[in-house]
Structure prediction request, 260 residues.
Amino acid sequence: MPPLHADVPVRPVWASNFDLESASLRSFAAGARYVAVNVQYPGLVHLPGKDHNALTDEQRYALLKANVDALKPIQVGIAVRDRHGMSHAWEFNLRDFRRHADPHDVNSIAYLAGRGLNVDTLAQHGVDARSIGAMLLSSGLIGPDSGLTWITYTGAYHVAYLLKILTGGDPLPPDEDKFVGAVRQFLGEQVYDVARMAADCPALPVGLERIAAHLGFHPPWASPRLAAAAGLRALLVFKRLEQGEFGGNVERYKGRLQGM
Prediction:
């Protein structure tokens, strides 16, 4: 597999080029086989009050729902790989979040700023989440019969924010079973979390960037290592693990999202 930055530049999407890049994504999506998603969001404002591992499944989902319902996503990265092994990536910058008005975790915004993401610039020049949701719904990537494999890393929150975008900002389903049903309705059955897979590979380090570096994948060309870069890493790491360590047998990881 070639170095990541050599062949897969990140395509930043703003209001000014949204129509052009949306058409590009729809065209490439016609031959898609794999889609990876990563969402940058403003941290957590609802905390568990105890060790996350001590929470029940119901409590973990309630915590996820409380945060995703309360917060606005900031950036969406979509990486697509087609049947010929070619990959493209788009980074959609959202305009809905307002730093001085909307709830957020200060440290999370500072982290994103340290990576070059200026949320005030996004508010002025980004795309509204409803437009992105409508575009994705018409792209051919969404639906239970798309036949696509969806990939993420520590993906419960990423997938939850994607559902929020696809439903026009609606609250998440009231319980985990209905959430899983919604994921299947929009993304299908083949949804994989690379973090779950990597945890069963003792030789791999922890963290998506470290895993990608360990496997020899370089950062995307001219990318600040934000949403699209993370999506690309998750996509390539998944393919490497699927073809290598797991010999194509990844069924046991289907639908197991970390963070929930």
Summary: The longest helix spans residues 227-243. The radius of gyration is 17 Å. Strands lie at 10-13, 32-40, 75-82, 87-93, 149-152, 191-193.
